[in-house]
Amino acid sequence: MISEQIAALHSQLPAGVTLVAVSKYHPVAALLQAYEAGQRVFGESHVQELVAKQALMPADVQWHFIGHLQTNKVKYIAPFVSLIHAVDSLRLLREIDKQAGRCGRRIDCLLELHLAQEETKYGFTPDELTALLDSDEWATLPHVRIRGLMTMATYTDDTEQIRREFRTTHDLYRHARDHVAAASHWDMLSMGMSHDYPVAIEEGATLVRIGTSIFGQRQY
Ligand SMILES: *Cc1c(COP(=O)(O)O)cnc(C)c1O
């Protein structure tokens, strides 16, 4: 099942779109099935769970942290994480920079954009994002590299609303790429989950974060 889903997604996704297999709340045995089917990029959203799984999985897995990251937990994932999707404050970016520096690393990050009509979602509003990028501090942090944006659409059946949110995100992403000094590294747009990734790809996603369609309903 899992291996068939991985194979189907790999053959279906356009070139240039990376599949992040979202494995939160699934056991390592399930991750290994995906790994054996050729999947190397895994996304987790809880620090403790990620650290535990990283110790058990093969060393060539690329771990993406996709959830809300608390500043006091950055140190646990800084030694190995390959991409942090949901940076939602300058304070968090500074902490990632500090912890990456301690490990002698430079960590790739995405800024989370908040467009969804849900109070609970984290992230920058478009105005906050513009203000952050206009200020120069992010560009002076030597141990982080901002590669692009991440967003979660409103959880709704209204495909047109989802499409509008993804399109707005892509517009902001393009606008930033044209204006940000480190433009050469501005190349990642993370949007789309099991129920809305086809729309996200149509609207320019380069990373899709898919859990349920691969692993089924989340366990424990
Ligand atoms: C859990 C999660 C996903 C995956 O959701 P599915 O609906 O299971 O595909 C994607 N992105 C984030 C940020 C998540 O927390």
Give me some keywords for this one:
binds pyridoxal-5'-phosphate, eight-stranded parallel beta sheet, 18% strand, 10 helices, 220 residues
Fold and architecture overview:
The chain is α/β, with parallel strands linked by helices. 41% of the residues lie in helices and 18% in strands. The protein contains ten helices and eight strands. Strands 7-6-5-4-3-2-1-8 form an eight-stranded parallel beta sheet. The mean pLDDT is 94.
The largest sheet, given as strand count, sense and whether it forms a barrel, is: 8 strands, parallel
Global shape: globular
Low-confidence stretches: none
* Structural classification: alpha/beta
Strand percent estimate: 15-25%
Number of strands: 8
The number of helical elements comes to 10
Helix content, binned percent? 40-55%
Distance between the termini: 19 Å
> Overall pLDDT, averaged?
94
Radius of gyration: 17 Å
- Helix-strand string: HEHEHEHEHEHHEHEHEH
Distinct compounds present: pyridoxal-5'-phosphate
Strand order of the largest sheet: 7-6-5-4-3-2-1-8
Describe how the helices and strands are arranged.
Layout: H1 2-12, E1 18-22, H2 28-36, E2 41-44, H3 47-56, E3 62-65, H4 74-77, E4 83-87, H5 90-102, E5 107-113, H6 126-134, H7 137-140, E6 144-151, H8 159-179, E7 188-190, H9 197-202, E8 207-210, H10 212-215
Parallel strand pairs: 1-2, 1-8, 2-3, 3-4, 4-5, 5-6, 6-7
Could you give a short description of this structure?
By secondary structure, this protein is of the alpha/beta class.
